[in-house]
């Protein structure tokens, strides 16, 4: 059986205030063409279809159009909700869509109920595990703790229990949206830390033939059977070196995996350039970046006059300007966003305590209180989102 694994579309997202809807449409055109031309048997979308719980209308229309095109091809699509999606909104109409071969899996209660497909070698069970917010799903799944490893482990127990009752030789695929240990992160993924722990071990997926993962934006192979497709477009400059692609996965008669990367269209390359303003304006070696989306980091000891306007004359697609002097007090000019890049909510909160109380960082009890408060806020946000 031939599967096309993709994730993290983030429909409706922009790139440093530059709209990406045209680029996202081009990706979906490419996806549909790949499904048609490469004789795909099923499409797997591992979460974060939208960029936010209440997406803009244009993103919803683009999603609707993509579903119609996939349904017209007669190729089943299995799709789960991610941490950026509103599971309840994404799941509206799922029972009707199922009749057209679009299988939306947004309810944790359905983790152990697969989409069953067949090929010449027998059945393939595809299990969709939507993003599982620990505090919200612990009781429903019977997990021993409210953390990611426990709830995902409980969900996988239901998968393995269902699979055990299937005919011998049934092949199995799981879609999941999680941070699995060993994965490489980018700046554009939303922090999902709960209880101080964000990752789950790869061993949680033992017992299935293929795990199609979403959440991390870089395409990567954790094991031959556990892969991230990554996002189809770059959503931060930390992804400047990414090769954006989907996985074309052939699952053979005994469940062995043969995977091939299918490159995605690149709307515009990304470039990070660094140095004093005058060098960036004159250096001929940077000519290849003049049509790229550019993040320029200026290392001048003093802030130059009108640097954005001057750089934009050479790099018309300059979208980010950062000040990072090589030395001296001007280092404090680095933007607030730059200082927070790559830090979790917990780390930011602890840094704040240390900042307002010089000489006395948060102790173990205070760190636990901060962690509990962050988890409670996240649970309240998820509950409010679900009630809308």
TrEMBL record:
Keywords: DNA recombination, DNA replication, Endonuclease, Exonuclease, Hydrolase, Nuclease. Residues 267-355 form the Nuclease SbcCD subunit D C-terminal domain. Residues 1-218 form the Calcineurin-like phosphoesterase domain. Transmembrane segments: none annotated. SUPFAM superfamilies: Metallo-dependent phosphatases (SSF56300). It comes from the Bacteria. It holds the Pfam family Metallophos. SbcCD cleaves DNA hairpin structures. These structures can inhibit DNA replication and are intermediates in certain DNA recombination reactions. The complex acts as a 3'->5' double strand exonuclease that can open hairpins. It also has a 5' single-strand endonuclease activity. Heterodimer of SbcC and SbcD. Belongs to the SbcD family. This is Nuclease SbcCD subunit D.
């Amino acid at each position: 059986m031939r599967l096309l694994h993709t994730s993290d579309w983030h429909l409706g997202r922009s790139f440093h205030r530059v709209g990406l809807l045209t680029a996202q449409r081009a990706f979906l055109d490419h996806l549909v063409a790949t499904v048609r031309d490469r004789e795909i048997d099923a499409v797997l979308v591992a979460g974060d279809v939208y960029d936010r719980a209440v997406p803009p209308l244009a993103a919803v229309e683009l999603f609707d159009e993509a579903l119609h095109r996939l349904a017209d091809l007669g190729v089943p699509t299995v799709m789960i909700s991610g941490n950026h999606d509103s599971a309840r909104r994404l799941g509206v109409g799922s029972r009707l869509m199922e009749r057209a071969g679009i299988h939306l899996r947004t309810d944790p209660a359905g983790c152990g109920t697969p989409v069953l497909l067949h090929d010449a070698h027998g059945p393939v069970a595809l299990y969709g595990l939507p993003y599982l917010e620990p505090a919200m799903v612990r009781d429903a799944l019977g997990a021993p703790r409210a953390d990611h490893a426990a709830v995902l482990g409980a969900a996988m127990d239901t998968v393995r229990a269902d699979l055990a009752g299937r005919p011998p030789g049934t092949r199995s695929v799981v879609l999941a949206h999680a941070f699995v240990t060993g994965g490489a992160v980018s700046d554009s993924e939303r922090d999902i830390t709960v209880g101080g722990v964000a990752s789950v071990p790869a061993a949680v997926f033992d017992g299935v033939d293929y795990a199609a993962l979403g959440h991390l934006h870089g395409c990567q192979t954790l094991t031959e059977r556990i892969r991230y497709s990554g996002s189809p477009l770059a959503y931060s400059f930390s992804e400047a070196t990414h090769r954006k692609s989907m996985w074309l996965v052939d699952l053979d008669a005994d469940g062995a995996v043969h995977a091939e990367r299918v490159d995605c269209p690149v709307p515009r390359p990304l470039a990070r350039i660094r140095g004093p303003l005058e060098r960036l304006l004159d250096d001929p070696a940077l000519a290849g970046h003049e049509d790229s989306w550019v993040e320029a980091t200026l290392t001048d000891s003093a802030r130059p006059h009108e640097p954005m306007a001057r750089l934009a004359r050479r790099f018309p697609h300059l979208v980010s300007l950062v000040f990072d002097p090589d030395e001296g007090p001007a280092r404090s000019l680095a933007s607030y966003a730059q200082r927070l890049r790559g830090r979790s909510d917990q780390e930011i909160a602890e840094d704040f305590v240390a900042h307002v109380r010089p000489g006395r960082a948060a102790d173990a009890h205070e760190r636990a209180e901060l962690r509990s408060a962050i988890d409670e806020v996240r649970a309240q946000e998820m509950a409010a989102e679900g009630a809308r």
